[in-house]
From TrEMBL:
It comes from Streptomyces humidus. Pfam families: PhoU_div. This is Phosphate transport regulator. Belongs to the UPF0111 family. InterPro entries: PhoU-like_sf (IPR038078), Put_Phosphate_transp_reg (IPR018445), UPF0111_domain (IPR052912).
């Protein structure tokens, strides 16, 4: 661990943990959407929108702390990248739920539940990892597993696209469903960006 002569601002750790916990909330709402009747989806979307706003507030708090802190626990650029990537995850998850409601999707294609299960697992891992930024310990397995999950998400996404283009769906339905599964794939990519940023921070701090 790099030796420092000056104290570091430690509130960042709590804020990153809070942001990650909020992502777990978002992933649970995605799971709830899967089993919900179409009549219940608007209310779930409203709760997801509230969670996304909470995520925005958490991100802005990190940026404010970053701009007002003379000493930071690690590189400012890495703090910015980590906060932004966490925020991206919530944005993508909220967008996916919103699209399901706006497009009046009656039935999601088989395989979407696998996408959401991957996101839920990545959310749990990310929330578990954030407190470990304090010590930079026990993080290697986290970023390895999230990268593995992202690879799994890629495979699921490709199978979903093949399913959508097999001729079963009307063209307009394909466009709607493809946008939803693409946004869920972007959420998986954002989880990987968070894990890669954590790895970069850990390497610099070792």
């Amino acid at each position: 661990m790099r030796f420092r002569l000056t104290p570091r601002e430690t509130s960042f750790y709590d804020m990153f943990a809070a942001s990650a916990d909020n992502i777990v909330t978002g992933s649970k709402l995605l799971m709830e959407l899967l089993g919900a009747d179409t009549s219940a989806r608007a209310e779930i979307a409203e709760r997801m929108r509230a969670a996304e706003h909470a995520g925005d507030d958490a991100t802005h708090a990190i940026f404010h702390q970053l701009n007002s802190s003379f000493i930071t626990p690690f590189d400012r650029e890495d703090i910015y990248n980590l906060a932004s990537s966490l925020d991206d995850i919530m944005d993508f998850m909220e967008e996916a739920v919103d699209l399901v409601v706006l497009y009046n999707v009656e039935e999601l294609p088989k395989g979407v539940e696998q996408q959401i299960e991957v996101l839920a697992r990545a959310a749990e891992l990310t929330a578990e990892a954030m407190p470990n930024l304090r010590t930079m310990q026990n993080l290697t397995e986290y970023w390895i597993e999230v990268n593995r999950l992202e690879n799994q998400a890629d495979q699921i996404h490709r199978k979903l696209l093949a399913h959508l283009f097999n001729g079963k769906y009307e063209a307009i339905e394909v466009l709607k469903l493809k946008q939803i599964v693409d946004v869920l794939e972007e959420a998986a990519d954002a989880f990987e960006h968070v894990a890669n940023t954590v790895e970069t921070i850990a390497v610099k701090e070792s």
